[in-house]
From TrEMBL:
<comment type="similarity">
    <text>Belongs to the UbiC family.</text>
</comment>
<protein>
    <recommendedName>
        <fullName>Probable chorismate pyruvate-lyase</fullName>
        <ecNumber>4.1.3.40</ecNumber>
    </recommendedName>
</protein>
<dbReference type="InterPro" id="IPR028978">
    <property type="entry name" value="Chorismate_lyase_/UTRA_dom_sf"/>
</dbReference>
<comment type="function">
    <text>Removes the pyruvyl group from chorismate, with concomitant aromatization of the ring, to provide 4-hydroxybenzoate (4HB) for the ubiquinone pathway.</text>
</comment>
<keyword id="KW-0456">Lyase</keyword>
<comment type="pathway">
    <text>Cofactor biosynthesis; ubiquinone biosynthesis.</text>
</comment>
<feature type="binding site">
    <location>
        <position position="109"/>
    </location>
    <ligand>
        <name>substrate</name>
    </ligand>
</feature>
<keyword id="KW-0963">Cytoplasm</keyword>
<dbReference type="Pfam" id="PF04345">
    <property type="entry name" value="Chor_lyase"/>
</dbReference>
<feature type="binding site">
    <location>
        <position position="71"/>
    </location>
    <ligand>
        <name>substrate</name>
    </ligand>
</feature>
<keyword id="KW-0831">Ubiquinone biosynthesis</keyword>
<keyword id="KW-0670">Pyruvate</keyword>
<dbReference type="GO" id="GO:0008813">
    <property type="term" value="F:chorismate lyase activity"/>
</dbReference>
<dbReference type="InterPro" id="IPR007440">
    <property type="entry name" value="Chorismate--pyruvate_lyase"/>
</dbReference>
<feature type="binding site">
    <location>
        <position position="168"/>
    </location>
    <ligand>
        <name>substrate</name>
    </ligand>
</feature>
Length: 175
């Protein structure tokens, strides 16, 4: 199983309106575009960064790894942020199975991942994140004040032996 235990909160605890978004097996980007024709991707950063503690095991990284290719974006309806997305992979993966990761620019990462028949996806996992989790803090830095808890989901994309972990934090009041 690619996700630590804490990424398996019971889905029944999530708000009913959010559940279809948390469990969407297809491209979240495609679903957002269907609901928000003014969809935009706002790139916050794309650079090597320290992986979060709960990402190390999922990516099969040693605890001493200091930097990994990382991308953080806001998925927006016009200028309104809907989702804070955080993706992390390995240096080897961006030279092999996820070469396009470095050059995605302002496009959605999902548009690349779901367009390739050679990329597989793990089961989705979800949890509530709060101020103790680095993704909640990063989302707050990007968008301002937030509720105490937010729902997030994550999955691992595989290109052969290479892994790319994508986590999406759903922002209020839209979800």
């Amino acid at each position: 199983m690619p996700h630590p235990h804490r990424w398996h909160h019971p889905l029944c605890l999530a708000p009913r309106a959010l559940r279809p978004w948390l469990t969407e097996a297809g491209s979240l980007t495609a679903r957002l575009i269907a609901h928000h024709p003014d969809f935009q991707v706002r790139v916050l950063k794309q650079q090597a960064a320290r992986p979060h503690q709960d990402e190390l095991a999922t990516l099969c990284l040693a605890s001493g790894v200091r930097h990994a290719p990382t991308r953080e974006v806001l998925l927006c309806a016009g200028t309104t942020p809907l989702v804070f997305a955080h993706s992390v992979t390995t240096a080897v993966a961006v030279r092999r199975g996820f070469r396009k990761f470095r050059h995605v620019g302002g496009r959605s990462l999902g548009s690349l991942l779901f367009a390739s028949p050679t990329i597989a996806r793990s089961r989705l996992a979800w949890c509530r994140v709060d101020a103790r989790h680095p993704l909640w803090r990063k989302a707050r830095k990007a968008v301002g004040p937030l509720p105490r808890r937010l729902w997030a989901r994550r999955s691992v994309f595989y290109a052969g032996a290479d892994r790319l972990l994508v986590t999406e934090v759903f922002l209020p009041p839209h979800f």
